[in-house]
Amino acid sequence: MYHFWSGEDIWCTSPQPSDAEALMELLNDSELQQYSDSPPVSKKEAETMCSGRFPWFIVRTETQQVVGAVALLRGNRESAEICILLQKSIRRHGSGSALLQFICKTAAIHMKLQCLYARVLIHNQPAIQFFKKNQFEQIPVLPEHLHVPDEKESVYFACELTPFVEQRPLVSVIIPMYNIAAYLPECLRSLQKYQCEIIVIDDSSEDNTLQVAKDYAAQLPNMTILEMKGKHFAGGARNVGMRYASGEYLFFLDGDDIVCEPSMWEKMLVAAWCSHADVITTTEYECFDANRSWKCHCAPNWTGRITQSIRPVMFSRQFPVWMSWFRREWLEREQIHFLECVRSYEDNYFTFLTASTVNSVYSVAGTLTKHLIRQTSLSHIKDVSVQTAFFSVTEQCYAYASKVGLLERFPMEMISCFYYSVFCTACHVQERLLPEEDWIIPEAVKFLRAKFPSMPANLPQIGKQERERFLMEWGRHTNENL
Hints:
Blueprint: E1 3-6, E2 10-13, H1 20-27, H2 30-33, H3 43-49, E3 56-61, E4 66-73, E5 79-86, H4 88-91, H5 95-109, E6 115-121, H6 125-132, E7 137-139, E8 154-160, E9 171-177, H7 184-189, E10 197-203, H8 209-217, E11 223-228, H9 233-244, E12 249-252, E13 258-259, H10 262-275, E14 279-288, E15 293-297, E16 304-305, H11 311-316, E17 324-327, H12 328-334, H13 346-357, E18 360-373, H14 384-387, H15 390-404, H16 406-409, H17 411-433, H18 440-451, H19 464-481
Parallel strand pairs: 5-6, 9-10, 9-12, 10-11, 14-18
Antiparallel strand pairs: 1-2, 2-3, 3-4, 4-5, 6-8, 7-8, 12-17, 13-18, 14-15, 14-17, 16-18
Helix pairs in contact: 1-3, 13-15, 15-17, 17-18, 18-19
């Protein structure tokens, strides 16, 4: 499925069968028909166009109103004729030019076409000027495979697509490394077949992780190795990788993860090429090394612009960094980064800022990553200072929410978000990793009591046992204050 945004007003998808009637009405629109030498389109013909067998795209507003259509006609392996139909209200805002640029980029990078052609009836001066100002050059005649019998007098245009093939990599894969020599080869091998920039950052490993990376450098000419002195942990290493990366999208993979489905990489590339969305996300498998069992985690099933009404969904369903691609320009503009100098939960700050500022999301069906959960990893060892780092991370998230006004704009959503970030994490830490540390849950309630005094009346829907524990600790803390 192709899907891409054009300016602020419209977006475009491959058609669904339900779009047939709207497409028929558009193609038979009287204002557009004056520029066409084609006969009226029947509903059956429109249904054929929406079948998915032909490269048609439907142009919509954010309210799903169909306002245009795009097609690549009579194509071969090298070229095709482009047809763009947009209602006058949309053309006025310059969206057509942005739409044309995305189509050219898609045709060049994904479809591997070398040239696009256009045919315009000679009296259609607006369309003639449109193609002239958008890198299309007037030519005397179309190639033989694009000829149409008995066509009316027309003007022809051609656009070479070479300039639309970007030289820089579309994706930069950023991999922080610390004592993962046993797992790194499988991770790097899973990336060998893909066109991407690979940046590995060694955080002063004490085993032979760095040497393993250097051994693979000859097999991966697109890999860069960065060495850090001192301990910066995963957050600091990823931030260094972000500053070095040149790709349009950044993909944060752990050194013990693997990219597991080659077809999914291609789907992610198409989504990134065509959508230019801030986040391209998918699902991932988690693997537990003790028994090699698996479970699947799903990303937020949302594709489109993030409006005020949709924003709360982003807080409840954030984006794990190893199952999403993030557009670099947006990350830099919003100053989104990982917390440094914390040994765990550093990505919680990154995903919170992502949920707060993301403007557009594309969800791709399928599984991209196998994410290994190791009992010996830093985020799972039985170390109180490591496992309780979520308190300081959440404090930073709360400070950010206060600074940018999220607490006022989304009061209920912030209560729910911080409840799960603090209380549920505290329960996980105490009951699964550190059952003897019975101060963690009371400390979590104390944190929430200070930030959200009215929380008991606004608790999210939770299990009975968990709710009782929360209210018990809440009441105990209140009585102690009295």
